[in-house]
User: Fold Short-subunit dehydrogenase from Williamsia limnetica.
Amino acid sequence: MFGFRSTPPPSYGADAVVTGAGSGIGRAFAIELARRGGRVVCADISLERAQETVRLLAVRGYAVQCDVADRSQVEDLALFAELEFGGAPTVVINNAGVGIGGQPVGSIGFDNWNWALGINLWGVIHGCETFVPQLLAAGRGGVINVASAAGFAAAPTMGPYNVGKAGVMSLSETLAAELSGTGVRVSVLCPTFVKTNVAVDGRIAAKSSQLAQNLMRWTGFSPERVAVGTLDAFDKGRLYVVPQLDAKAIWLAKRLTPALYARGAGLLNRLMPDEPAPHSQLQSASTTGK
Ligand SMILES: NC(=O)c1ccc[n+]([C@@H]2O[C@H](COP(=O)([O-])OP(=O)(O)OC[C@H]3O[C@@H](n4cnc5c(N)ncnc54)[C@H](O)[C@@H]3O)[C@@H](O)[C@H]2O)c1
Assistant:
């Protein structure tokens, strides 16, 4: 008899690597992947946070200390995963990221640019350069890169964040074309607000941090909802994952009327109260600051 054996979607039973898995969206990805029967390497700059996540997993997980801004640490992470899994991972989620905002271009400071782009952009570049060859050799699975709605619609006083996330979108779009027909897929997640620590940790000036935390509280999705929706979209082979209605509306406005979008963002910026702190006083998190 001819039997029909369907292959499970890639997020089920996956051997997964998640960066920034010690909190928020990364932790929710790790928990959901484990719930779907996978094994998860939980990487974070804070080993303690990664270990906390592993304790929450339904199945076997591994905690690894890894600063994604450091290429050699990402390469070590790939070696660790390959050894534990006995081969290439199925799913790699380049999620680690930090918040930065509250100061306009010209007063941000190069240290802050380097710090934010080192994690938010180079971290994802390190992840893609290191893991994509492994995935291609295996000919299955894929990458989920975590960008932001800021990647397609720049908000004022968030220069380094916008630039990093736009880079992650562009990298993901490049990959999507390059991976076409290989059996390896890529999705890029572009949320607006998700209820996590991103506005508290990181380098966000006081008023902007407060505003972001309020918007997160009022309009934010839970990280669990975002993780489930993103993995489902990844399984369907969707490149863009734009989970929230406000993100979809911003996407549309930016695409249809880009100049009007820029004028609207400028008007909003003029209505915002000024941040008193110069760039040197941007708040710095204990675990992620350098
Ligand atoms: N929360 C939101 O509203 C929101 C919206 C859009 C995009 N995002 C993106 O989602 C991703 C996850 O952020 P989150 O909201 O869960 O924040 P979070 O602060 O709750 O979690 C981020 C995790 O990344 C880790 N991390 C920080 N620097 C690192 C580094 N150099 N190497 C490895 N790990 C590092 C932190 O220790 C933390 O555990 C980020 O890329 C963020 O930019 C978040």
About this structure: The chain is about 50% helix and 10% strand. Residues 34 and 45 are 21 Å apart (CA to CA). The pocket of nicotinamide-adenine-dinucleotide is lined by residues 19-20, 22-26, 44-46, 49, 66-69, 95-98, 119, 146, 148, 191, 193-194, 196-198, 201, 216, 287-288 (CB under 6 Å). The longest helix spans residues 159-179.
